Amino acid sequence: MTESKLRILVVTQYFWPENMRINDLVRDFSEKGHEVTVLTGWPNYPEGKVFSEYKTNPEGFKNYFGARIVRVPLVSRGKRSISLILNYLSFFISASTLGVVKLRKNKFDAVFVYAVSPIMAAIPAVLIGRMKRVPVYIWILDLWPETLRAVGVLRHPTMLAMVGRVVSWIYNRADYLLLQSKGFLSNVKQYCTKEISPERLVYFPSWAEDDFSGSPEKTSNLLERDDNTFTVVFAGNLGEAQDLPAVLDAAESLKNSASVRWVIVGDGRMSKWLAEQVESRGLKNVQLLGRHPLSAMPEIFASADALLVSLKTNDVFEKTVPGKVQAYLASSKPVLGMINGEAARIIEESGCGFSCSSGDAQGLAQITLRLAMTDSAQRETMGQAGRSYYLSHFSKVTLLERLEALFRAGTLRKDVK
Q: Which fold has domain 211-393?
């Protein structure tokens, strides 16, 4: 018997044409025949201003692979801290008011929240779930308020406690809390003042975008393959959390003693600092490629001998698995990690490469040399081990099938009430 289609509302501050993993989920559920609606804001990430193509033709962004998109206005992220705060506040206020009005005539079977920072984006979902009397599923990808403290955005105990009360309010009104890392469990449970049954706390990790699922059809015109040089690629956000000073220290320690080049792809708050440091230190073994679309990454990765993930250490980051880890594993390339906690465990458990402690520049230099001196056949075996681990633990097909089953289970619980 064919199962009935589901009516799914996805609440997310970030969505296409912004480059986010939630795009995959919406497209796949829509293509499977489900009726998907997305409540989101004006696209402005990461540039900090509303995309020109959206301003020119907003009507062209109301449908995504059959999914209906409902957009609400927000303040653009800009480049300053105050504009970022206003961006966060404006979305949840706009979605909780105008968004609720726009969706007042719609019926849903499930409300799903893509809960990257800020967690307040879950508030309109909770309100809509209560009004429509449907289950709310929150995919927790950042720990709040711990992440605010960890990155130095908020340090005052009173303010952190206030945010903690908001988090508790949200978690206690959700039907299912989906955790991107097993390490999140204890943090999340401490904000659940009501007893929450184990089946409602679900381990639900990220997957790699489809771009990384197959072999690139062509070579990269951004990074030429060099078989005489061991190439390490770092891709992603260039912020303080990624501990790029330690990466440059490792590169500097090897610049005169080994044929290793370090390629950094992406942009962020540390971009200008990186460019200045590479110039002032004379790091000719470091290439800065800038930001490029996701579609260019598989070809760049194919030109690499190893892929690097790094993250500063603290109690929050150790429990987090950066999304790039899944993309690296899916790419069948060896992985180097200057990282602690869950991500280091995955590298070790999968056998995909080597890791050292967060902030250990000399350790990174040593494991880089160790991998560079490993013969190519063994490195290929490592890459394949990572790919195999990815398919066993992070396959998008398997994860979305599990999510669909959760949606149906929630519908049954609703019917029983």
A: Rossmann fold (3.40.50)
